[in-house]
Amino acid sequence: YTAFKNGNRPVYPDDAPRSLKENLTRTGLLRSRDLRSFESLGPITRDDTDDRDVIIFPEMINNRYVMLHRPAEWTGSAYGTKKPGIWMAFSRDMLHWGGDILLAQPEFEWQSEKVGGSTPPVRTKYGWLVMYHGVDKKRVYRQGLMMLDLDDPARIVARPDDFILEPAEEFEVKGVEHDVVFAVGNIVKGKELFVYYGGADKVCCVATARLDELVDYVMSYQIK
After folding, report:
1. Whole-prediction pTM value?
2. Distances 15 to 11, 22, 143, 181, 185 between C-alpha atoms, Å
3. CB 118 within 8 Å of CB 132
4. d(Cα 47, Cα 54) in Å, to the nearest integer?
5. I need a surface site. Which of 31, 68, 94, 150 has the fewest CB within 10 A?
6. Based on the number of CB atoms within 10 Å of its own CB, is 47 exposed (0-12), middle (13-18) or buried (19 or more)?
7. From the CB of residue 41, how many other CB atoms can be counted at a distance below 10 Å?
8. Comparing C-alpha atoms, which of 24, 70, 69 is closest to residue 48?
9. What's the average model confidence in pLDDT over 202-214?
């Protein structure tokens, strides 16, 4: 989960996104046996950057937990990306994370301003199917897909250049934040992938697709 941090925050220019000027969040970890009562295990991201879009892989890989996250201020030549990108970190205990690697940065017009993780990776025979979001210059949020190597998730196997979901319905176009589809959860039921997403930061929605068709689509963009 993400939590707002009070106290000193970086000073951003007037035209900076509201999310940066008003929110400096950390991501924390909760544990529950019944989803009614929760035990706080503490923060798992740093306190000097706006770091959210945290996703933990559903199983350990090479005896380590793997996490995707998006530290907004990690941009510039020192970080190898001009705009906020998706980073990968590793842990032995799920509480202490490190070894950060830049996994993906904006590459296409529909994600020109930033990219971030969306839903938990889904294991397939070709790799980890990962859904992520991209934001363009008009602040439109869309969803895309990529495939990561099963044993080395820091390696992108395939990454289509187009999105698979964009704001189209009125409840996705008009709301608290206009033109937003923001996926946060998924399950595989039979042959279908159910994706749960927010529409315009106002309503909760679900979209479905055949998992095998999504996998075939992504793998048609396999990186040689």
Report:
1. 0.91
2. 12, 12, 25, 23, 31
3. yes
4. 14
5. 31
6. exposed
7. 13
8. 24
9. 98
Q: Which residues pair with 81 in a beta bridge?
A: 76
Model confidence at 26, in pLDDT bands (50, 70, 90)?
confident
Residue 189 buriedness (CB in 10 A; 0-12 / 13-18 / 19+): exposed
Task: Indicate the burial class of 163 (C-beta count within 10 angstroms; 0-12, 13-18, 19 or more).
Answer: buried
Residues pairing with 27 in the sheet: 2
In angstroms, rounded to a whole number, what is the distance separating the alpha carbons of residues 104 and 70? Answer: 10
């990962």: which residue's tokens?
130
Q: Is-contact 106 134, C-beta < 8 A?
A: yes
Q: Please, which residues have CB within 8 angstroms of residue 210's CB and are 6 or more apart in sequence?
A: 191, 192, 193
CB 136 within 8 A of CB 130: no
* pLDDT tens, position by position, 30-73: 999 999 999 999 999 988 888 999 999 999 999 999 999 999 98
Residue range 149-189, pLDDT digits in tens: 999 999 999 999 999 999 999 999 999 999 999 999 999 99
Beta strand extents in the chain (DSSP E only): 2-4, 25-31, 39-43, 51-56, 65-71, 86-91, 98-104, 114-117, 122-124, 127-135, 141-148, 156-158, 181-189, 192-199, 203-210
